Each structure stands twice: as C-alpha cells, then as structure tokens.
Amino acid sequence: MADPNPARIFADPEDPITATVSGPYAPLLDVDLPAGGKPWRPFKGFLVILSVLLFVGLLMTLIGETGPGGSELTDLTLNAPAEFTNISFQFLEPASRGPSVGVSEKSFRLHSGEKAPFPWSNTMLSWQRTAYHFQPEKNWMNGTRDCVVGTLIGRLYRSQCPMFYGGWYHFFYQYNPEAAVWGNIVWGHAVSKDLIEWLHLPVAMVADHWYDTNGVWTGSATLLPDGQIIMLYTGATDEWVQVQNLAYPADLSDPLLVDWVKYPGNPVLVPPPGIGLKDFRDPTTAWYGPDGKWRIAIGSKVNKTGITFVYDTDDFKKFELIKGVMHAVPGTGMWECVDFYPVSLTEENGLDTSFNGPDVKHVLKASMDDDRNDYYAIGTYSMDSGNWTPDFPNIDVGIGLRYDYGKFYASKTFYDQNKQRRVLWGWIGESDGESTDIMKGWASLQSIPRTVVLDQKTGTNLVQWPVEEIKSLRKGCKKFDKVEVGPGSVVPLEVGKATQLDITAEFEIDKEALERVSESDEEYSCSTSGGSAQRGELGPFGLLLLSDEGRCEQTPVYFYIAKGTDGHLKTFFCSDESRSSLANDVYKGIYGSTVPVLEGEKLSMRILVDHSIIESFAQGGRTCITSRVYPTKAIYGAAQLYVFNNATSSSITASIKTWEMKSAYIRPYSSYNS
Asked: What is the DSSP annotation of 38-100?
C-alpha cells in the first residue's frame, strides 16, 4: 500500500540508492496532509513511570544492604559533613537529554564531587530565582527564537527578534510545559514594551503533527511586504528527522498574535542528500538579496566539519539550495543556531540584516554542539556566490572568538529598527543537578538583551553591552572613589543588598609596576589557572561578588595581567566560581579569556548581579562572561561585596559605582490587564 505521506520518505546518507533521490523533497503539496497524532505522551509517561520504578528498586536494594537502621543512616549522612561518616554512596549520573535525538546535551551532567547531594532548603532554592532576567513562571526553557520583519519602504527589510508587532516586542522560546527538564518542547510566548518587563502569553505552538510530534524547535519569523507574518521552524518528526516547517498567525488583527496555524504542506525543507537526518536544523533570520529573493541559512555538518547551507526562496514555501556551502570549518562538529548579520565599519548603529555595502562586514556565528559554546567571526560575504570568508582565518568560527566565555548558548540577534540597534539574546542554562531543578520547579533563563556592534578601535572583535532600558531598574547609587587596595588586600564595600546590583568599576595600576613585571615561561589561562588564589605580580584584582562575611563563599570577577613568552603584556578577564558555593553537586568552573586593552585605556568592568546569575563585561564589552552560581550562605541579606587585590607586588586604585536593582515586572498577561 502506498504511503499516504510520501514526504515522510527521507534520504538515508548511508543508502546509495535513496541518497541520490531528491525528488520527494522539492515539491510542496497544496492539499492538507494528515495531521498525525498528538505527541507520544502516553509512551513518554510510561518511560517516566518505568524509570521511577527502577529507581525505587535500586534504592530499596541499597537500603537492604545497609541492614537495620539503614534509612536513618542515610538521613544522617545528608546532613553531616563527609568526614563524620564512612558510609560510601554511589550516585547515578543524570539521564542524558538531547544527543540521542539529534540536539545538544540539555541535562547538566558534570558533578563537582562524589559526596552526598547537598541538602538544599526551600529558602536557598527560592533565593536562586532571578528578579530582572526573563524566565517562565515554572518548568524548563531553552533557546531564543530568531525573528525577522520586512517592509518595502526603500527596499529595506527589517529583521527583528523579538518581533515588534502591534506595539509589542514578541519573544518566542522553547519550553517544556510539563516539567523542569528538557523534553515535550513547545513554543512559549511573551510580550514586552521595553525588553525588560515581560508578560507571559499562552503557548504559541505545540507538537501536534507528524512533522513536529517530537518537538517544535528553533525557528524564525518574517513579516512579508503584504503584511503577512510567517514562521519557519525546525520540527522533530515522528521518526526524529529534523525538517523545516512553516506557520503563520491565525489573526493578524490581534496585536498579541496568540493563535498560530501550521501550513498544510509541511515540511517545506528536509535534509539534503548526504546529510544526517538529525543534522539539519535552526533556520536563520532571512535576508533580502539583489536578485529579489529571500535567503536563509541552516546549520549542519559533514563528518566533523561544521557547515552552513544557504537556501533562497520567493515565498518561503519552495526553496532552492545554493550550490556549495556558505562556510565550513573542519573539526568543529555540528553547527546549530547559526546567525548571520552585517556590522558597520563606520557607524555605531546596528544594521538591518539585508544591508550590504563597501563599509560593511558580516558576522557569522554558530553554536557548537560539541562543546556548547557560541563562536563568531568577522568576514566578507559575497551575495553573488553566497559564500562568506573570515577576515582572520586563525580565529574562524568554532576555533576563535566567543560571544561569552561562561554559561551562554544558543544565542540569536535581531535588528531593532525603532532604536537602530542590533540586540543579542542568549540562553543561560543551569549548572546544578537536575534533581535540584525539579525541586525548585524551574530551569534556565535568558541573558539581559545586549547591543552588538563592531569594535571600531580594534577592528577584530565585537563589543556587547546591556540594553539601555536596564537602567530603568536602577536605584540608590553609591560611589567609592579612588579606593587604594594594596597587595593581598580585601576591602568591603557597604552597598546594602548585594544580590541585585548593577556595578561599574575602573582600576588603575602604577606604570612602574607594569614596566618591571618579569617575563613568564608559560602562558596564563583563566580556565587552567588556580583562579583568584593564583597570585602574580599584576593580579588578580577585581570584585568579590555574592560573598558571605567570612568569605567562605565568594565569586571573584577580576583582571590578571601577565607578560607572555613573547615578551608582550596580556590582560585576562576571568570569573572564578570555584568557591561560589559550599554545595558539592553544582559545577564550579573558572571562565575567561584575554581582553584587548588599548594605549591610554583604564581597565574597566561592568557587572550585573541577579541572584544566581552574574553577567560581566570588560573594556566596554570586548570580553563577556556569564556565571551561574548557587551560594548556600551568601544569600539574601548575608550577601556582601568586596574589592580585592591578590597581586604579590603591585597596588591598585579602584573607582566603583553600584546601583541596587529593582525587580522587573514579569507576570502573566492577565494580571497586566487587570
């Protein structure tokens, strides 16, 4: 019997026959396809029940092995230091979520210790929820949705995400409405007037057709010249094949765009021959070419070479693959959440995605599935060939610069035509255990939106900075001018509440100290160093964030200056989480990289502290670091702020401003209406 859905027959790159067949994928059907069933929730529910039963069985076995009173000993161990018990425990690593179905790992599986999990209290877990970063009311979220808006005025096509429509910024994100772990992915939806205060709307799209029954994943929106809005997104089919689908609003007169309809001819794009069925995802913002066609890019890989395909289209229903690839970098693995946009060589404003010209460079960014970091490079784009070439091959995509050297992934940009700026969003995952996320009832959040421009002073990197609207939450400025901090010193800063702060700081070092620093026989690295405890002639120095009075817990953000093996001074910007928490079941890494410092510039940093997230920006945003921290003592009124200098022989002078930050209004839309 013939398959009623011929488009479900996908080319298998391992099959020499089907790999050469491209016919079933090109035509779009004009008739309704069977919708298919609901997502496999009964099956997923069965798996959950089975997992619980297996866990209970294992637990009973362990209890049985401890003999009488074993359960009491277990409770005692959870509340006592490890040195007071000789009971040995072996904890199961959290289940992997994502790679088996063709996306990056969504379960945080690193563990900083082998002891019993930390006994988190409700008070501690409640403190971790942020006050002015976007996150859903509950459950799991990940990934920013990419959007684009177009207009025919002056042949200019506007790109946006969130999409500005009907007087609102619209933000779409991947969301699990059922639990605080990855899975059952649908599209959450929120609206805002200022990118800071958000109102939650009903779920925008759910997984309810065969072509997306296993997830509604990353996508993009486009406003066509005739006023129509369309959405392209990656769906995971009932056989876990990654395909691109089309949807559009049910009612354009609704400024909130609450209801969406899926195109009956979906999918509109499937993996091309030779590409893995789980290696084809995340359509980008569309840009408009001189040939009168729209173009989109999609991430993929061939073996271990990360690649970006480019397709052109007239109507977002029929697509043609441009010969070759936009770009490829061997050894970088799968590219997902690809982003592509222009930056000006002469202007500080952002540029529309379709803009091109002699004073323009193009940024190509990809999220690396292998290491879960976002890399970018600056280069030249040829509209004729569709190829992009990096200006500096030694810092190409995946092997060079990163948006952020901390916890920051699956980011997207949009062009905000209202303020002529390009804005970057990033998904900030958790670094604690999955069981803890389930206890607190939520996981993950979004970074504060950042403006992005080319650094015209260096010409080699971007600069990122929190959007100006964040200043609306500031209150109670405190200034600390020219604070002298000697070698090995720590100075407290009386700022009141230290869990919601906006901080700016400048540091000066004696020029003589810079001149007499000795050459090192090895290169310094933030991640492989001893963190803020490793002392040198010119560092580390900076701020101790979320520290308790005894500094048992603290998160230093600092500069470190070293003379490399080439005889030149290099400045490093680092964030040290190694002492951020007494808990053993959270990851506590040391992040950072070099930061360019030009002649005559003071060392400067800006830091946003919002409970369990710290976003740090050095030298105007040339190097950025996002940290997730989970203190157990340095919370609420016990959290303090210090300036420190752990250098061995040089003093610093620090000038610091702090603002307490109000909580943003992030609520259901119904409460805003009332």
From this structure: --SHHHHHHHHHHHHHHHHHHHHHHHHHH-TTHHHHHHHHHTS-GGG------PPPPPP-SGG
**Angstrom distances, CA of residue 333 to CA of 328, 329, 369, 370:** 10, 8, 7, 6
% of the chain surpassing 90 pLDDT: 69
Whole-angstrom distance, CA of residue 292 vs CA of residue 314: 8
Nearest to 338 by CA among 262, 244, 273: 244
CB atoms within 10 A of CB 322: 16
In the predicted structure, residue 14 carries a pLDDT above the cut 70: no
Helix (H, G, I), strand (E, B) or coil at 473: helix
Residue 652 sits at φ, ψ, to 5 deg, of: -130, 160
- As a whole number of angstroms, the distance between CA 22 and CA 27 comes to 10
DSSP at 513: H
HEC string of 540-607 equals EEEEEEEECCCCCCCEEEEEEEEECCCCCEEEEEEEECCCCCCCCCECCCEEEEECCCCCCCCEEEEE
Is the Cα dihedral 570, 573, 577, 580 positive or negative? positive
Read off the pLDDT of residues 402-429 as tens digits, 9 standing for 90 and up: 999 999 999 999 888 788 999 999 999 9
- What's the pTM? 0.84
Q: Quick check: 673 pLDDT over 70?
A: no
Give dist(CA 474, CA 459) in Å, integer: 32
Q: Which of 329, 98, 319 is nearest to 217 (CA)?
A: 98
Rounded Cα distance between 629 and 400, Å, is 26
CA distance 95 to 47: 12
